[in-house]
Amino acid sequence: MTASSSQPLNSLMVDAQWLAHRYDPGQDSFHFLQLPRARHGEIPFLTDEYIGQAVKPRVIRREEAIAAAPLPAPLHFIFHSAYCCSTLLAAAFDRPAIAMGLKEPVLLNDIVGWRHRGAKGPEAARALDHGLRLLARPFSAGEAVVIKPSNLINPLIPGIMAMWPSARALFLHAPLDAYLASIARKGMWGRLWVRDLFGKLLREGMVDLGVAPSDYLGLTDIQIAALGWLAQHAQFQALTAPLGERVRTLNSDALIARPGESMTALARHFDIAFSDDDIAAIVAGPIFGRNAKTGADFAPGQRERAASEGKALHAEEVEKVAEWAMLIARNNGIAMDLARPLFG
Q1: What are residue 251's phi and psi, to 5 degrees?
Q2: How do residues 199-253 score in pLDDT, each as one tens digit?
Q3: Closest by alpha carbon to 104, among 149, 152, 135?
Q4: Half-sphere exposure of 215 (CA within 13 A, CB side)
Q5: In angstroms, rounded to a whole number, what is the distance separating the alpha carbons of residues 252 and 229?
Q6: What's the rounded Cα separation, in Å, for the pair 96 and 111?
Q7: How many CB atoms lie within 10 A of CB 245?
Q8: How far is residue 221's CA from residue 258's CA, in Å, rounded to a whole number?
């Protein structure tokens, strides 16, 4: 199926309401879905689960889409290791005429999946570069675009930053013990998710922590979660020096404790012109006051209480695994505090 004639291709490509949603390597085409800006704010992720599948996509071949695409907006990234308020932070960049945050666009996952199925490097790189260009279509002139990919995309960070030399990035993470407690309290689905993530990190060659592969099946779910966190943290640590001024790092505890300072520093890092009033409105508004994934309001101190209760409920398991993981970190030279902090 090709793009419908109901809207000319050139008109569609300059309209950011037509989200570049999926990439089909078999047809070398992008699927576009019409998604108004307000709808972006209502859903936590740009996935089929939340967008819905009732809307028929417009299918446009890659070369045609790129030929008709406008010049990309300034593009920046929030890379993360999961469960660290990254969705909240991306949502905070929805400020009309200034910036827009995109939360886990699926076409990037499509390209990772294609790589895992044997895509050739140059082909996958071209699709990735073009996919990012199609995501960097602003809703209005002068807007920057901030993409928060799924952390499945982390193996592609070096390539993404090389392709987009003007892009800047934030490496966002939760403290190790908080991350482990988050996984533990999410029950079976959280534990399945970390094993799936670990398998993908293994496939990308990102796990080299001195644990014999023959031992992996004997590890608990929370140990696997810890190894996945360490592998991602090691990658962030290794990339801070070569990326230099283009990257800053942030701990989610610091973000929640100092939201205004975090937003001010990050806007400056991304060269996004938030005023003091913009920052104040973001911090006092609903984005920092609700669960970014469910939309439920947070009562004062609720985040902190939930984290504390989660740690207490799974204290023995989390503490033992954290101690084990810290030993692995020391043996591999992985620092808990990353260089190039956003502020401090």
Answers
A1: -95, 135
A2: 999 999 999 999 999 999 999 999 999 999 999 999 999 999 999 999 999 999 9
A3: 149
A4: 8
A5: 14
A6: 29
A7: 8
A8: 32
Query: Is-above-0.85 flag for pTM?
Result: yes
- For each of the domains in the chain, give its residue range(s) and CATH number, in order of start: 71-98+142-331 (3.40.50)
- Residue showing tokens 């014999």: 212
Residues paired with residue 173 on neighbouring β-strands, in sequence order: 251
List for the chain the helix, strand, coil content (%; round to 5): 55, 15, 35
Indicate the SS3 state at residue 127: helix
Q: Which amino acid is at 264?
A: T
| Three-state secondary-structure class, residue 33 | strand
**Beta-strand pair 169-173/247-251:** parallel
Percent of the chain having pLDDT more than 90? Answer: 86
Instruction: Specify whether the CB–CB gap between 47 and 106 falls below 8 A.
Output: yes
User: How many residues are present in the chain?
Assistant: 344
d(CA 236, CA 320): 24
Unique residue bearing structure tokens 């993409």: 147
CB-based contact 198:207 (threshold 8 Å):
yes
Q: What is the CA radius of gyration of the chain?
A: 20
Tokens of 33: 């879905």
Three-state DSSP at 29 gives strand
